[in-house]
Amino acid sequence: MPDVAPGGPLTLEHHVLTSLLGAWALAACSAEEAAAVEEHIGECAPCADEALRLRDAVALLQRPESLDLDPALRTRVLEGCLERRPPRIPVPEWATPYDAETARLDALLQDFGDAEWHAPVRLRWFEADGAASRRTTVAGVIAHLLTVDGLVATALGLADPLGDITAPTSAPAGRTEAYWRASHYPPTRAVRAPWREQSHGIVRTVSFTGDVGGMPVSYGDFELPLHDAMLDRAFECWVHAEDIADAVDYPYEPPSARHLNRMIDLAARMLPGVLAERRRAGLAAPGTRPHLVTAGAPGRSLRLEIEGSGGGEWLIPLDSPGATGSADHEVAHVALDGVEFCRLAAGHVPPAEAAAGQVGDREAIRDVLFAAASLSRM
Length: 378
Prior knowledge:
Layout: H1 14-19, H2 21-25, H3 31-41, H4 45-61, H5 71-84, H6 96-109, H7 114-117, E1 120-127, E2 130-137, H8 138-155, H9 172-182, H10 192-207, E3 216-218, E4 223-225, H11 226-247, H12 257-280, E5 298-307, E6 312-317, E7 324-337, H13 338-345, E8 357-360, H14 362-374
Parallel strand pairs: 5-7
Antiparallel strand pairs: 1-2, 3-4, 5-6, 7-8
């Protein structure tokens, strides 16, 4: 705004100054007018009271903004730094979502006091075609991430965070329950340091693997290649960071669009296998007109359209995990928002309430939505 004229504030009549109070509260006056209004309200009590009320009203009209930085900002800053000075050993592209999400969660945790660490959190997932949940605390959630990230750590040759604790199974839930039971007291803020140290160790170690990332990581009853396991851990870190943020009533943004797209792609690639498992368990129908084909051949498909941040389209083969998706054999089309789809895959949204748009074979649509929810676990 221009500086006030050297001659000092304007000389205006009382009724003119009163009419300018609204514009002054909105910072819409010229510099001369603002100076005149401010000099006047220093001398006129009724106008000063009115100015204060107007300023308070303007504050209510403004949307509160989160103190958190844009999730994409960290990625942009790192890219700028790495362009100027490339690292000798770069972090693989498939590991960057995990690196980013653990850093974002750690930033959320850094100012927590004892009350926040013991705030109740309800972990939610989808099991046996119904909602399941487990009550814990913020510290308990970090302990859960520590133990399940330990599956990747041990596959890389790092120390197992369970130490001497014996888990009944190597599945994520069994490891978490064993860790919780072995704790003499409920987990506290002390769990943050080993979790963060382990996440740093995982990122450092995978950086030496180059762009391969194909070594298997066992989750007990199934395996994922390392690059997919890192995406899985990034996804769970984000989901549980939202659980924590909800528990302490703090806003938390989704991942950057590029990382969100990778997480959605992992879920889409896992859907055919989950559909086959559900069909063998009698939880999914074979379809009124199944199109069984040999591995690698096109088969009956559902088009999954993801809108918004991280969006795209995926053709999901319905009758065989070995088939390829085919637009020529498309029998249904489902459209969802990207974040909504991820919350469905996390078991936070009921399948019947997830799809924004559905066209085609209703049975195929239901099977895919329930399969997406079945990807979730504690």
